[in-house]
Design a protein that fits this description.
The structure is a single chain. The chain has four helices and seven strands. By secondary structure, the protein is of the alpha+beta class. It has one domain. 27% of the residues are buried.
C-alpha cells in the first residue's frame, strides 16, 4: 500500500501536478492513525494495476469497477509518442480524476453507489463505460484513458 498527496493540477492537453508518495506496510494501522487525527474517508476506490516502465516514463493499466484505464506518465513529448504508438490521439485524452469519472458515471447511470468499489458498482458498471481520463503520479505530465467495455 502507498500513501500519497497530489497538488493542484494544471489543466491542458496533459495534466501536470506534483506528488509526494511513500510506502505504507500496514494499511489498517494507517487508517487508524488518520481516524485518530480526525480524518474520515471521503472517497474510496478500488483498482488492480499492472505497470510497464522505461527510462522516460511508465504506462499503467488499471482494472476498475468502471472499466479498464490506461495511464501514461512522463514528459509531454514521451506521452504523445507512446499514445501514438498505442493508436491514441490527443482527442482521446481526458484529464479527469477517478472521483470525477465516478461521479460522471453515477450521473449517467443513476447509480446509488457511494464509492467506486467492485461491490458497490458491480462488474456490470463496465457496460456504463467511461470514455477516458488522464492522471499524474509523478511531477510530470500524464494521460489516462479507459478502454472500451468488453
Amino acid at each position: 500500500m502507498e500513501a500519497y498527496a497530489q497538488g493542484e493540477g494544471k489543466a491542458g492537453r496533459h495534466k501536470s501536478r506534483g506528488e509526494l508518495e511513500t510506502g505504507v506496510s500496514e494499511g489498517e494501522t494507517m487508517d487508524a492513525i488518520l481516524r485518530a487525527l480526525g480524518f474520515e474517508p471521503s472517497f474510496v476506490y478500488e483498482k488492480f494495476r499492472a505497470e510497464w516502465r522505461d527510462d522516460e516514463g511508465n504506462v499503467v493499466l488499471d482494472h476498475t469497477p468502471l472499466g479498464d484505464v490506461a495511464e501514461i506518465e512522463g514528459k509531454s513529448r514521451w506521452i504523445d509518442r507512446i499514445a501514438r504508438e498505442l493508436g491514441l490521439t490527443p482527442a482521446d485524452y481526458i484529464t479527469k480524476s477517478y472521483a470525477e469519472l465516478f461521479f460522471d458515471w453515477k450521473r449517467k447511470t443513476g447509480s446509488r453507489a457511494q464509492n467506486m468499489t467492485f461491490r458497490e458498482c458491480g462488474e456490470s458498471a463496465n457496460s456504463g463505460g467511461t470514455k477516458g481520463s488522464k492522471r499524474l503520479s509523478q511531477p510530470a505530465s500524464s494521460s489516462k484513458r479507459p478502454s472500451r467495455s468488453r
